[in-house]
Amino acid sequence: MIKSANDQAFDFVLEDQHEFAAISGDYNPLHLDPVYARRTMFGAPVVHGINAFLTGWATISGEPRDIKRISTRFNKPVFLNESVTVRCRDNTADRLVFDLLVDRELRISATIDFSDKPPPDSSETLLEAAGKTVMQSPSEFPEGEQGKLKLHLDQNQFDKKYPALTWLPNMVKAQVLATTRLVGMITPGEDSIFSEMELSFSKPMDNQSTYLTYTNEKYDDRFRLLQIALVGQGLKGRLKAFHRPKSITQPGMAEIVSACRKMDRGDAKVLIVGGSRGLGETAAKTFAALGCDVAISYSSGEQDAKRITDEICSAGERAEYVEINISDNETITRLTNSGDQFDIVLYFATPPIFRGSKVFSESLLKEFLEYYVFGFERLVRGIHKKDRPLLVFYPSTVAITDNTPKMMEYITAKSAGEQFCRAYESNYPALSILVERLPRLPSDQTQTLMAIPFEMSTLEYMSGLAKRLLAEYIKSSRSSVGS
User: Fold this and answer.
1) What is the C-alpha separation between 176 and 163, in angstroms, rounded?
2) Tell me, what DSSP letter sits at residue 46?
3) CB 416, CB 365: distance < 8 Å
4) I want to staple 247 with a disulfide (CB 3.0 to 4.6 A). Which of 19, 39, 350, 432 is the partner?
């Protein structure tokens, strides 16, 4: 974690995620595994909400006080390397209220109420450090179902990470940490999104219990929202967490081969940029099923790229995978120097899409432009042979037409990408760029908590696109031969 000079802003890196997982016992891969996280609806690792909350609290902790109540709402996820600002709205003897913001957008809000009693001894309870909890992935949440969660605390590690919060009672530290382990590892477990936490503290119970008892109070399947009641030593609380949908699985090679059986086969050399997941995965399998030599590019998902390549080759078709980072000229140069010459390029490189808000973010726009304009230009410039026909597919979005709310930066960057394609294509007679505004198709990027129907399947769209691109490739090849 890097803090600003005035200690009121900070960001998180992957190392912070692993440190907090060791302290809390929440090893959910959404927070720790970039390859896993990119196949979720978030598209990238998400900072543990409790870690962000504790980090924000530590910047404005103040004098030790007896805690009556902690209320926290995790409005939107915080991602790695985002600059998080703490905004303190109230800091009096009996209440602390603060928000965590990114680019002026509210991500987390917290209220902590204090009593007029003296603060208790911070080391009255000694607990063992957290071990590895087996992560669960339930699909149902029967109301009234109960369980017990043992409390853990490595006091030295907690105090080292949050030195301004050393005054907190050990029991409170352990109970707060237990909430993220409960949500992230047990219920809802693997497919969870922590939404709200409300903890009320009273006089400690006589039994000195080192467990939390939790009860699935209510599950609303319309919003996939689970409400959990907590009871512990001197504690009553309630948590809310969403049960996010599983990652979308793209069609298998057998299904795609069957769908493409009656279509004309081709012999084009095709590069699928971003072909290791989502739309790119289906595109790679579709062109391979139609007889093309396919190269699948990946940036971070090498295992996925290998899996897809193996699946294609097992079906008797041809495929390979190659590393391309559109922000790194070296990987593009390496591809250029390999001697591969491509006839068709499909460009599916993208960062996580749904991160906008009503507040415009200059940094988010720059990130989108890096992918949709600058990175695209680097790639095409690197592989295009000026005297050799090259057909490029550039996917845009119907969000431009629909003026989709909270997507200003994405829409602006995609619009700029469309204009760039038209201008760039006009400079090179052998280059043809097909720009299409894609409808909403099934992919991890387009998943939502509430089920919204997709306009068509990825296979339906990609088979039609492949048919058109191959027809255009044959046409341009014949024109090139004739000239």
Assistant:
1) 16
2) B
3) no
4) 39
* CA dihedral over 183, 186, 189, 190, signed as positive or negative: positive
Alpha-carbon gap, residue 441 to 443, rounded angstroms? 6
Upper half-sphere CA count for residue 245 (Cβ side, 13 Å):
18
For 220-278, write each residue's pLDDT tens digit: 999 999 999 999 999 999 999 999 998 899 999 999 999 999 999 999 999 999 999 99
> How far is residue 50 CA from its own chain's centroid?
17
328: Cβ contacts below 8 Å, ≥ 6 apart: none
**Helix H segments across 29-131?**
29-32, 34-37, 49-59
CB atoms within 10 A of CB 71: 17
Whole-angstrom Cα distance, residue 272 to residue 321?
9
Percent pLDDT > 90 in the chain is 78
Provide the residue count of the chain. 483
**3-state class (DSSP) for residue 44:** coil
Q: Where are the alpha helices (DSSP H) in 143-275?
A: 155-161, 170-181, 253-259
